[in-house]
Design brief:
Layout: H1 2-16, E1 27-32, E2 34-35, E3 48-53, E4 63-71, E5 83-84, E6 93-99, E7 104-110, E8 115-122, E9 127-129, E10 136-142, E11 147-155, E12 164-172, E13 179-182, E14 203-205, H2 215-238
Parallel strand pairs: 5-8
Antiparallel strand pairs: 1-3, 2-13, 3-4, 4-11, 6-7, 6-12, 7-8, 8-9, 10-11, 12-13, 12-14
Helix pairs in contact: 1-2
Length: 239
């Protein structure tokens, strides 16, 4: 009898418990559709999708994921091995710039052939670090579908501190046919060529809900702590 009562109370307590994670944002998706100056937009099959998400695997450090789906133009690939690659901006590339406090920003560049770069900057084109690596970067090119897909893990300590704003870009094509695209285009008409370090067009982004030490692990831990506390509480009531 006592056991049934105890279980009953326990169930009620469990139901009354505010369920965590229900309204948590686990991804933010943005489509790059515009030319760098906002004068033209691309057809649907040339849209580039950039998704920020709470990753399940976090390489033992806190961070978030970036996932890219982009058309594959099959431009000449960088000649170096996959991994960190300076000058990636001269190739087929998708870029994400994230700005924090004190004009500090991180420049992340991703290529379809497994190349990336992570630059830290402080003020316009004032680079303070060029040698950071990513914990995880993987890409798949599908030549039949003419698309590529990339997945990157960004550690929290690679982000500038403070409230964040950002922009995302894509470049492809060779020579005079090079095409520069922007999520938030630069509408200032005094610019006659693209400059991705112009920070004015950046828009706010809240990454806090996506930064995780391992989404599945932390949810499991939360539930376990909740369970134990409720059990102790129930025991105390009936003791
Ligand atoms: C992004 O573009 C794709 C088409 O490529 C579309 O299906 C999707 O709804 C768009 N997402 C957003 C957030 O605009
Ligand atoms: C460039 O970065 C350095 C830190 O490495 C900083 O001391 C300096 O003020 C920055 N310069 C500008 C023009 O922002
Ligand atoms: C590429 O896409 C096609 C069509 O969707 C699919 O059948 C094929 O398995 C894909 N190839 C790779 C390497 O993912």
């Amino acid at each position: 009898m006592k056991l049934i009562l105890l279980l009953g109370i326990f169930m009620v307590l469990l139901l009354a418990c505010p369920s965590q994670g229900q309204n948590e944002v686990t991804e933010l998706i943005f489509n790059i559709t515009s030319s760098w100056n906002g004068r033209s937009t691309v057809p649907e099959n040339e849209i580039i999708e950039v998704r920020f998400y709470a990753p399940e695997h976090t390489f033992g450090v806190r961070g978030f994921g970036i996932d890219i789906k982009a058309p594959f133009y099959d431009d000449p690939a960088p000649s170096g091995n996959p991994g960190r690659f300076d000058g990636l901006w001269d190739y087929e590339v998708v870029e994400v710039f994230i700005l924090g406090n004190d004009d500090k920003y991180v420049e992340l560049e991703f290529g379809p052939h497994g190349h990336y770069l992570v630059y830290q900057l402080e003020g316009y084109r004032n680079t303070t670090s060029t040698t950071q690596e990513l914990h995880g970067y993987s890409t798949v090119i599908n030549k039949t579908e003419k698309v590529w897909h990339a997945r990157a893990f960004i550690a929290e300590d690679q982000l500038p501190e403070g409230d964040h704003s950002f922009n995302a870009y894509a470049i492809h094509g060779v020579g005079k046919d090079r095409v520069y695209m922007a999520l938030y285009p630069n509408l200032d008409e005094s610019y006659t060529s693209p400059d991705f370090h112009v920070l004015e067009p950046f828009e706010p982004i809240d990454l806090t809900g996506l930064i995780t030490s391992g989404a599945l692990d932390s949810v499991a831990t939360n539930h376990w702590v909740q369970f134990s506390l409720l059990f102790l509480l129930a025991c105390k009531i009936f003791a």
